[in-house]
Amino acid sequence: MEITPKNQSFQMQTYKVAKIIDENYRIKTFELGASFKGKPGQYIMIWIPGVGERPMSLGSSSPISVTIANVGRFSNAIHQLKEEDLISFRGPLGKAFSISKLKTGNQILLVGGGYGVVPLAYLAREAKKKGIGSTAIIGARKKDDVIYTNNFGGAKIIITTDDGSEGIKGNVIDAVNKIFGEGEKFDAVYSCGPEKMMHRLAEICIERKIYCELNIERYMKCGINICGACAIDGKICCRDGPIFTAKEALRFKDFGKCCRDASGKKVELH
Ligand SMILES: Cc1cc2nc3c(=O)[nH]c(=O)nc-3n(C[C@H](O)[C@H](O)[C@H](O)COP(=O)(O)OP(=O)(O)OC[C@H]3O[C@@H](n4cnc5c(N)ncnc54)[C@H](O)[C@@H]3O)c2cc1C
Asked: Ligand 1 center to residue 115 CA distance, Å?
């Protein structure tokens, strides 16, 4: 079987947790005592024996790190780990964000919310190495939910909160409209966050003829294109994504509208 991108690894690997960082009241970063050749937008499938496997975006590949919100059974089990405990995973998996066509001096816009900032911050740091400048619009419900602002490699940061407790009161789309309205120009836009937000962002980028890539995080089970749990209109998120262009995403009739839950049932997105 041909493996693309070539840096993917389906083998289970196990490393010690070297460092745990408390990002906020419910999000922790886990740095492992190992590095690999992962890229921003790719993910690893973390396995906890007796609990299950879940995909997590890479926050860094050197060292390998993931940033996890404690929202349910699996993420809670990870949050119980201590430094020196072991984490097993398969990866890196999936397609990465693409900045290969961009040149030194180009400017990119990053739009994310919640733990969606994790792959975007990694992308900003990689872009900086190529001399590409980044502006990041980070959305959160409230001040305490804003994370990662120091991980964007010095990018310009714009924060929005629903309640106005930090930055602009409103959502990231309000900030995107504002920044475009002020005449700022970007060579490409990258996003990771709630699908409804990314759907609107995709429309805005198409209207403005700006290249845009989105990280579509569908419920994944196998990560290797066997089970079909993450299918979206003929594409398999774990293999064909999770990164899709805005053009591709807008062709998916389920994009921004509904997704499959753990049982495979279609549920409406709110
Ligand atoms: C490609 C990809 C990358 C991902 N990267 C990350 C990552 O970097 N960090 C991360 O924390 N998660 C990430 N996820 C989500 C992760 O895989 C799990 O779905 C998540 O940890 C919840 O699993 P759980 O078993 O703890 O909760 P579940 O039992 O599956 O869910 C518990 C409840 O929380 C809700 N829920 C699930 N996720 C969230 C959420 N993020 N915020 C609020 N409510 C939620 C569910 O709807 C459910 O009601 C990613 C998913 C994909 C597909």
From this structure: 9
- Total-model pTM: 0.94
Q: What is the pLDDT of residues 50-102, one digit of tens each?
A: 999 999 999 999 999 999 999 999 999 999 999 999 999 999 999 999 998 89
Atom 33 (ligand 1) nearest CA: 72
Q: Ligand 1 centroid to 143 CA: how many Å?
A: 21
Protein residue with its CA nearest to atom 35 in ligand 1 = 71
Domains of the chain in start order, with CATH, are 12-93 (2.40.30.10), 97-201 (3.40.50.80), 216-264 (2.10.240)
For 148-213, the DSSP string reads -GGGSTT-EEEEEETTSSSSEES-HHHHHHHHHHTT---SEEEEES-HHHHHHHHHHHHHTT-EEE
Ligand 1 is surrounded, with C-beta below 6 A, by: 43, 54-57, 66-69, 71-75, 114-115, 118, 217-218, 220, 242
pLDDT, tens digit, for every residue of 119-174?
999 999 999 999 999 999 999 999 999 999 999 999 999 999 999 999 999 999 99
- Distance of alpha carbon 245 from alpha carbon 213, whole angstroms: 4
CB 12 within 8 A of CB 32: no
Pocket test for ligand 1, best of 42, 75, 76 (most atoms within 8 A of CB): 75
